[in-house]
Amino acid sequence: MSATGGPQVAHLRKIAIVGFGKIARDQHVAAIADNPDFQLEAIVSSSATHEDVPVFRTIEAALASGLALDAIALCTPPQVRRDACELATANGLAVLLEKPPAATVEEARALAAMGESRGTTVFAGWHSRFAPFVADARAWCESHDVFHGQITWHEDPAKWHPGQQWLWQSGGLGVFDPGINALSILTAIRPGTWQLAGATIEQPENAETPSAAHFRLGRNEDEIDVSFRFSVGGTETWSIRLLAENGDSLLLLDGGGVLSLNGGPAVRRPNAEYAGIYQRFAELMAARQIEVDVTPLDLVEEALRTADITPVGPVTI
Ligand code: NAP
Questions:
Q1: Which is the most buried residue in 202, 255, 287, 313, by most CB within 10 A?
Q2: pLDDT at 4 over 50
Q3: Contact 47 CB / ligand 1 (< 6 Å)
Q4: Is 238 left (phi over 0), alpha (psi -120 to 50) or beta?
């Protein structure tokens, strides 16, 4: 989608991070510091402190402070993005949305529409699409016919989501929060309409979102078997394995950071996912464009809507 409006003159973009939790601290601060197009100007947080930039408790306070902000990076949980996006776009600020862009497809579209109507960028940043071997995998898919494959996305929630109540509340997506990264890669390397079938989920008794999911995806004659699982202390795997009709194979490991072709050596490249996100955000801001692809979230909604549910014991949150 493209917003209306004339070309925007490139300049240093003053950005505020909104929601100073794990991903903001782990990735956004460094990615902004490393990108010459952006300058971290403020943090909006209910509780954080910071030595180098002012911290505001609300976006309203940041806007009222007189700082000439150009953009915000919305790093809050997906359930609480609407008001922040509304306020930012109404004040002419561009918005970078962490993945998933919102708790539902409908809301993600509404956030995109806010940018459309106000002529300011809204970007749904699917970070896994910027993993080092995604472009190679897409080229491989373009040169191969029908394939079968498996997606295995198993991780330890205690390591990646410590104390995150929102993950287990409606709209937090549970195991689909990491799993949607795999879907963002698949739908980028093999674009088109994927049909979902045979979904089953495991539903902890003390949560509103699932701890495991299994389903099949089909696109023309392609067939992919998908397994998402949270397992405390278990082996972690973020892999996509594809076998083409002619016998060639592709294995993406570590969420796209490692590639092996035809059973050959696994090659690793350095991770620069958030560098890629901010580079793309700068491009979109310069062109006043909107980029909100809801395809991965659409598949998650379909899985949740159609799944057979198996109740399981409580999770530790
Ligand atoms: P988190 O550690 O829980 O941080 C989220 C922050 O949002 C909180 O620290 C809080 O910041 C703010 N917030 C505002 N309203 C909130 C509410 N109702 N409940 C909880 N926090 C609220 O979560 P995160 O891991 O950074 O994830 C945030 C987003 O990034 C999610 O969409 C997630 O999918 C995505 N993401 C996470 C990871 C990861 O490894 N964890 C990786 C990639 C993407 P203040 O206290 O500063 O207000």
A1: 255
A2: no
A3: yes
A4: beta
DSSP symbol at 168:
G
DSSP state of 36: T
Residue nearest to atom 22 of ligand 1 (CA): 76
- Given a cut of 60, whether residue 124 has pLDDT beyond it is yes
Beta pairing partners, 226: 151, 215
Ligand 1 centre distance from Cα of residue 163 (Å): 11
* Domains delineated in the chain: 13-125 (3.40.50.720), 129-268+301-312 (3.30.360.10)
Contact (CB, 8 A) for 249 and 126: no
Q: Is ligand 1 within 6 A of the CB of residue 157?
A: no
Q: Are strands 249-253 and 237-244 parallel, antiparallel or unpaired?
A: antiparallel
Mean pLDDT of 42-54: 95
Residue with token string 């601290």: 25
CA distance 42 to 83: 18
Q: Is the pTM of this model over 0.85?
A: yes
Rounded to an integer, what is the distance from CA 148 to the centroid of its chain?
25
pLDDT single digits (tens) 184-214: 999 999 999 999 999 999 999 999 999 999 9
